[in-house]
Amino acid sequence: MSAEPMPGERVLRTAYTVEVQAPAGVVYGLVSDTTRWPLVMPPTVHVERLDFDGAEDRFQMWVTANGEVKSWFSRRSMDPVARRISFRHETPAAPALAMGGQWSVDELADGRCRLTLDHDFTVAAGLPDDEAWLRLATDTNSRAELDRIRAAAENAERHAALLVSVEDELTVKASPEALHDFLYRIGDWPATVPHVARVTVDELSPGVQRVAMDTLAAEGAAQTTRSTEAVRICFPAAYRIVEKRTVPAPLFAEHVLEWSLSADESDVTALCRHTVLLREEAVAEVLGAGTSLAQARGHVRETLGRESRSILARAARHARGAVRPL
Question: Which domains does the chain have, with CATH numbers?
Answer without folding.
Answer: 9-154 (3.30.530.20), 160-321 (3.30.530.20)
